[in-house]
């Protein structure tokens, strides 16, 4: 799990808790078969990856929502990343890796450390194994890699001069105001 694309474990990913602004994590996977040879997961398998709470492995708390997409969906694309959160320069995953981007938004005021979980063929693979080496080295489908989502309350104001107000009165055929 790479917060804002950074390779460091447990990167802080700030955002406003207004349910409009998003931040993201990249989940990088190197799938191997029983002979330890790299294999590619299908798009459907990659899209079944879930974000979970790093401490519990449970679904994210109420107030957090997320979706998998290479880019922000509309209308989320109207909002920039949180000021002072510069994403890492993007580098392509290594030849044997696959990567997906998960966009997150919230109305929560509580930080949450997130991990990833993938369930395939009755086996669960996850990144919230605290016994593993920090940073994502995998052992039997378990690794230790996370990012922390840091919601901030609104700390900005938009002055009235930034808006233009107009009013239009419309009349119906019976001479009464319809607005």
Please supply descriptive tags for the structure shown above.
5-stranded mixed beta sheet; 179 residues; 2% helix; 4-stranded antiparallel beta sheet; mainly beta; elongated; single chain; 1 helix
Please, could you describe this protein's structure?
The protein has 179 residues and is mostly beta strands. It is 2% helix and 31% strand. It has one helix at residues 43-46; strands spanning 2-3, 11-16, 23-29, 31-32, 38-39, 50-53, 64-68, 98-106, 112-120, 123-126, 147-152. Strands 2, 6, 9, 10 and 11 form a 5-stranded mixed beta sheet that branches. A 4-stranded antiparallel beta sheet has the order 1-3-8-7, with no helix packed on it. A two-stranded antiparallel ribbon has the order 4-5. A hairpin with a 2-residue loop joins strand 9 (112-120) and strand 10 (123-126).
Number of alpha- plus pi-helical segments: 1
The helix/strand series, from N terminus to C terminus, equals EEEEEHEEEEEE
Apparent shape: elongated
Task: Characterize the main sheet.
Answer: 5 strands, mixed
- Count of β-strands: 11
Poorly predicted segments: none
- What is the residue-averaged pLDDT? 85
Share of helix among residues? under 10%
Strand content range: 25-35%
Brief summary:
The chain is an all-beta fold and 179 residues long. It has one helix at 43-46, and strands spanning 2-3, 11-16, 23-29, 31-32, 38-39, 50-53, 64-68, 98-106, 112-120, 123-126, 147-152.
Secondary-structure blueprint of this entry?
Blueprint: E1 2-3, E2 11-16, E3 23-29, E4 31-32, E5 38-39, H1 43-46, E6 50-53, E7 64-68, E8 98-106, E9 112-120, E10 123-126, E11 147-152
Parallel strand pairs: 2-11
Antiparallel strand pairs: 1-3, 3-8, 4-5, 6-9, 7-8, 9-10, 9-11
